[in-house]
Amino acid sequence: MTVQSTNVLARVADVIEPHIDGTFKVRDRAEGMARQLYVCGLLAGGEPGRSSLPVQEQAANVLQCVQSWTTAEQIAAELAEAGLLRQEN
């Protein structure tokens, strides 16, 4: 992982963190979700994937595994607005 990708992960975690319910290991959980988006190739600088879905929708799909769908959509929209998601193919 490069310094640039580490910075992107930190910024992504900053966006996710306010949406996490509870107080237990909030930052760790936000960073874990950011890493999952990174592994899926959905963050800025990532390699284009094979899915025909828009990147923002793919991100929401990944996030909804640990968040409600409404929250996952909101986080994905905020990540897109901040320029933190991979550009469309």
From TrEMBL:
Lineage: superkingdom:
Bacteria
Name-wise, this protein is Uncharacterized protein
Organism per entry = Micromonospora pisi
